[in-house]
Amino acid sequence: MKKQIVCGIVCEYNPFHNGHIHHIQQARALTNCDVLICVMSGNFVQRGEPAIIDKWERTKIALEYNVDIVVELPYIYATQSANHFAKASIDILKMMHVDCIVFGSESNDVSFLQSLLKKEKELIKKPGQSSAKAYEEMFGNLSPNDILGYNYIKAIGDAPIQVYTIQRTNAYHEQKLTGNISSATSIRKQIAKQEMVNETTPMTNLDGRFLMENYFPFIKFQLQVLPKQELASIFLMDEGIESHLYKQVELATTYEEFITGAITKRYTKASIQRSLIHLLTHTTKQMVNQLPVLQYVRILGFNQVGQAYLASIKEDVHIASGFGQIPQVYREMEYKAAQVYASVLPLEKQTAFIRKEIQQPIIKK
User: Fold this and answer.
1) SS (H, E, C) 281-306
2) Residue-wise pLDDT tens digits, 22-43
3) Residue extent(s) of CATH 3.40.50.620 domains in the chain
4) How many other β-carbons are positioned within 10 Å of the β-carbon of residue 35?
């Protein structure tokens, strides 16, 4: 019997939009795959923000648009810098036995990205230097998706996984809508202003509840009342950033004022926001240092093709189809992340939302 071709993609779908539909279509066309697996960030994303719509809604729409299996990138890896994000994503896809991956790229040049690996040993992050600045000094002004792509290729290593790219058609940080296919950043900006985005995304119910500014009262409270020693124990609170954030939050009346004042050459917006997310969840350095190696795959949803594939690999992979099957330390992190994510909802809706965290995977018939 002919071996199935299994393709993997890494995504956040924050929110799912027309460019993602194009990505899925191109992934299938380029690889002629039989099974398409998506590794997706949960309720918090790599830029250190809450996802604008929850992971269950994003899972549903991914399945609707021809993804066969959606698996979750654990909270602790989804909220780290590009190298950790990419490594965990690829580790999961390796566990799922993918044959290939497809990602969007500004350069659309796999050979170029592979050539950057030769320079890796020369990449030395100076004291107080952000990862983004270190990349810039070594590789030039490398675009965000190319940075991720480089890290995907690095994480693949010698594994027999073929790499494909598709041309990114708009700027990653584009602030304004550019027509039918617009950046997720521009779509989120429109949603925050309560303006229509229906031409750019098939998603509905994008009402802006889960925006970072809505978590600002919780952030401000914790920065002001927690002892400096406790703040310093929080994961990614490094190089004295806790003192810097304490000073800035005293001066700010809005989240925008706070984050604008906090950004420096040493502290990028994304790195600050990631540290704030871990502050909200009280994720400590000690907790992260004691995490076991990632050896499970949490399933968020699948269709009939995906169900058959999962059955075929169940003897080889620790598949967590139920919340209780996630290793305890990871499970506790996911539950706490769900509690924090839901904290901006009305009290009467929070309990129902948090219960969703322990639900069974979504099955598309």
Assistant:
1) HCCEHHHHHCCCCCCCEEEEEEEHHH
2) 999 999 999 999 999 999 999 9
3) 6-209+292-364
4) 23
